[in-house]
């Protein structure tokens, strides 16, 4: 399976602008720029997209872990907070902090913790990130 997205940039790093388009159409000439990345101008940025990918990947991986163990979650809600920090002359993503709130009827805390940990380690986005990954998982049922 191959998934594709394209970036187009016009101008300098600080004053230029770009747009992102994915084959699925979810991103369609979506704007990004220095101001959307390092300030608060509307648009997206690579770190936000990585956070969305990590939250989505982990949550789906956990749903599969739970299904295999015989559980059906009522809701899995995950936030991924990606940290971008200075690294020499450039920047690096140093951390992705996953925060999960889960409503899974019938599961005990130990089994939930084990399955959530397996999902975090097995998620393809976790595997590709060269960053510290943390997981704070709360079971509400």
Description:
By secondary structure, the chain is an alpha+beta fold. It has two domains: 5-38, no CATH class; 46-139, K homology (KH) domain (GMP Synthetase, Chain A, domain 3). Helices cover 33% and strands 36% of the residues. The chain is elongated and about 55 Å long.
Task: Please outline the helices and strands.
Elements: E1 5-10, E2 17-22, E3 30-33, H1 34-38, H2 46-68, E4 75-87, E5 90-103, H3 109-122, H4 124-128, E6 132-139
Parallel strand pairs: 5-6
Antiparallel strand pairs: 1-2, 2-3, 4-5
Helix pairs in contact: 2-3
Identify the notable features of this structure and list them briefly.
141 residues; GMP Synthetase, Chain A, domain 3; alpha+beta; 3-stranded mixed sheet; 3-stranded antiparallel sheet
Short description:
This protein has 141 residues and is of the alpha+beta class. It has helices at 34-38, 46-68, 109-122, 124-128, and strands at 5-10, 17-22, 30-33, 75-87, 90-103, 132-139.
């Amino acid at each position: 399976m191959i998934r594709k997205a394209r970036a187009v940039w016009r101008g300098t790093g600080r004053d230029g602008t770009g747009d992102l388009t994915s084959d699925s159409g979810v991103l369609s000439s979506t704007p990004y720029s220095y101001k959307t990345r390092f300030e608060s101008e509307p648009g997206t940025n690579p770190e936000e997209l990585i956070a969305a990918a990590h939250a989505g990947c982990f949550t789906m991986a956990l749903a599969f872990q739970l299904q295999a163990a015989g559980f059906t979650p009522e809701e899995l809600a995950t936030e991924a907070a990606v940290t971008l920090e200075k690294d020499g002359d450039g920047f690096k993503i140093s951390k992705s902090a996953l925060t999960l709130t889960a409503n899974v009827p019938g599961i005990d805390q130990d089994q939930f913790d084990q399955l959530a940990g397996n999902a975090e380690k097995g998620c393809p986005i976790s595997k590709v990130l060269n960053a510290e990954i943390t997981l704070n998982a709360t079971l509400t049922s």
